């Protein structure tokens, strides 16, 4: 078999995205044993970095090994037992993912829904909490399928006042916007690796507070083979072994009770990605995403494209553009990739074939990349026969934006 040949790419999708070479380099370090004092030190430092990234004091801030949905599933599988009622607002595909995970955990889902491209007023969600009286509110912060940012800053407090647990999918917004977990009184929040944090997919930072921890520990079961006389369980124990947050707490605390074998190289990558993000600053990173998002959006409008969705609630890490009439979604994206090594994303469900999602996430987000992207994208689109496009005006708009 031949050696791997990986071509150079400019990834402008909502993940996975290119990573800083320092992250890749960190991942190629020698493997340490999982109880080696040096590795334990990296585990503890990674927990501190995760706390800083979420602006939280939560002790329980650690990664789940697996892609972001493993983080979502760990939280849902641990808090939702059969028969528990969960309110899941849906503004796009990932609200359905929460619905799916709750259903598989045996929970009873109540959905409220907005058309794709819109978000909820927070009061609408609070009214639904009063009506449905769920145990858990599970909500998506950045709905990548539609590019919408669901406001959530009032929801943690509203849940707490009602004895409800708030669970937030911040997979796409994590480290691309500021998520002050403690100030917003959120109980459990799941971040993402391969999006604005820009490390490879396969590890997922999460955080949860003591209130959440107390609740899930009512369902604790220590795995057979490492139980002691002190361990007991009731019959509502958490069904998943791998994604059982209570066992993971024992692993990610001074007990270091053996669970899985930590993904060594992934942790090196996560540690390094987080270190770089914290060095940049959580707020500065959010400002960088917002700044470049605004420039590219203006340029795409100057090109002659229309932007999809309610402009007041756009995510600053995705731009959704309406696909011009007469253009075949997949054919265009494939052409862009094969001819120029540039990747953009399609959407899901009813938006398939209607919008493209251009991701601005993490390491890729800088002036040089966006100018390169815009020049290739706009000229190639014009070559496909779309009428009324003005690539020169688009480029001038972005150059002027950066020169201001
Ligand atoms: C908002 C959101 N939630 C969850 C996921 C699922 O993440 P993963 O594919 O890493 O499991 C994604 C991935 O695109 C996402 O954008």
Name every ligand kind in the structure.
pyridoxal-5'-phosphate
CATH class term of the largest domain: Alpha Beta
Terminal Cα span: 52 Å
Quick one: how many beta strands?
13
Considering DSSP H and I runs of 4 or more, what fraction of the residues is helical?
A: 40-55%
Name the shape in a single word: globular
Radius of gyration: 22 Å
The chain-level mean pLDDT equals 96
The CATH H-level homologous superfamily of the largest domain: Type I PLP-dependent aspartate aminotransferase-like (Major domain)
CATH architecture of the largest domain: 3-Layer(aba) Sandwich
- The portion of residues forming beta strands comes to 5-15%
CATH fold category name of the largest domain: Aspartate Aminotransferase, domain 2
Largest sheet: 7 strands, mixed
Poorly predicted sequence stretches spanning 5 or more consecutive residues? none
Which structural class do you get from the secondary structure elements? alpha/beta
Cofactor: pyridoxal 5'-phosphate
GO molecular function: alanine-glyoxylate transaminase activity; L-serine-pyruvate transaminase activity
Keywords: Aminotransferase, Pyridoxal phosphate, Transferase
Organism: Staphylococcus simiae CCM 7213 = CCUG 51256
Give an overview in words.
It holds the Pfam family Aminotran_5. Residues 37-350 form the Aminotransferase class V domain. This protein has 404 residues and is of the alpha/beta class. The protein folds into two domains: 21-278, Type I PLP-dependent aspartate aminotransferase-like (Major domain) (Aspartate Aminotransferase, domain 2, 3-Layer(aba) Sandwich); 282-402, Aspartate Aminotransferase, domain 1 (Alpha-Beta Complex). 40% of the residues lie in helices and 14% in strands. It is built from 13 helices and 13 strands. It has helices at 21-27, 37-53, 68-79, 93-104, 122-132, 155-161, 210-217, 245-251, 264-280, 282-303, 329-340, 367-383, 391-403, and strands at 10-11, 60-65, 85-90, 108-113, 136-140, 142-143, 148-149, 165-169, 188-190, 203-208, 318-322, 342-343, 355-359. Strands 2-10-9-8-5-3-4 form a seven-stranded mixed sheet, sandwiched between helices. Strands 1-12 form a two-stranded parallel ribbon. It has a two-stranded antiparallel ribbon with strand order 6-7. α1 (21-27) runs antiparallel to α9 (264-280). It is globular. Residues 15, 67-69, 94, 97, 140, 142, 144, 169, 171-172, 201 line the site of pyridoxal-5'-phosphate.
């Amino acid at each position: 078999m031949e050696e791997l040949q990986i071509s150079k790419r400019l990834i402008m999708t909502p993940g996975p995205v290119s990573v800083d070479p320092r992250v890749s380099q960190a991942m190629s370090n020698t493997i340490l044993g999982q109880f080696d004092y040096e590795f334990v030190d990296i585990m503890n430092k990674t927990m501190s970095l995760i706390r800083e990234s979420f602006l939280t004091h939560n002790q329980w801030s650690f990664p789940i090994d697996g892609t972001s949905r493993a983080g979502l599933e760990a939280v849902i599988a641990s808090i939702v037992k059969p028969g528990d009622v969960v309110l899941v607002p849906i503004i796009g595909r990932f609200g359905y993912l929460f619905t799916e995970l709750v259903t598989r955990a045996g929970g009873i889902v109540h959905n409220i829904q907005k058309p794709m491209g819109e978000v909820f007023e927070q009061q609408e969600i609070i009214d639904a909490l009063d009506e449905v009286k769920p145990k858990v509110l599970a909500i998506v912060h950045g709905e990548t399928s539609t590019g919408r940012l669901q406001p959530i800053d009032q929801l943690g407090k509203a849940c707490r006042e009602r004895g409800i647990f708030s669970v937030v999918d911040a997979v796409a917004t994590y480290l691309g916007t500021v998520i002050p977990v403690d100030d917003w009184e959120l109980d459990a929040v799941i971040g993402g690796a391969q999006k604005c944090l820009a490390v490879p997919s396969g590890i997922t930072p999460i955080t949860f507070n003591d209130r959440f921890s107390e609740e899930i520990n009512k369902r604790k079961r220590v795995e057979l083979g490492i139980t002691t006389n002190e361990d007991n369980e009731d019959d509502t124990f958490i069904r998943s072994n791998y994604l059982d947050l209570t066992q993971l707490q024992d692993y990610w605390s001074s007990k270091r009770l053996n669970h899985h074998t930590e993904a060594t190289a992934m942790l090196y990558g996560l540690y390094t990605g987080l270190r770089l993000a914290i060095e940049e600053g959580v707020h500065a990173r959010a400002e960088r995403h917002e700044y470049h998002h605004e420039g590219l959006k203006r340029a795409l409008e100057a090109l002659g494209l229309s932007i999809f969705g309610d402009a007041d609630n756009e995510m600053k890490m995705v731009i959704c553009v309406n696909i011009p009439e007469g253009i075949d979604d997949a054919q265009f994206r494939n052409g862009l990739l094969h001819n120029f090594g540039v990747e953009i994303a399609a959407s899901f469900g009813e938006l398939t074939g209607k919008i493209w999602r251009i991701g601005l996430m993490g390491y890729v987000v800088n002036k040089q990349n966006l100018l390169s992207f815009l020049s290739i994208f706009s000229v190639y689109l014009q070559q496909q026969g779309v009428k009324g496009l003005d690539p020169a005006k688009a480029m001038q708009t972005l150059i002027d934006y950066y020169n201001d």
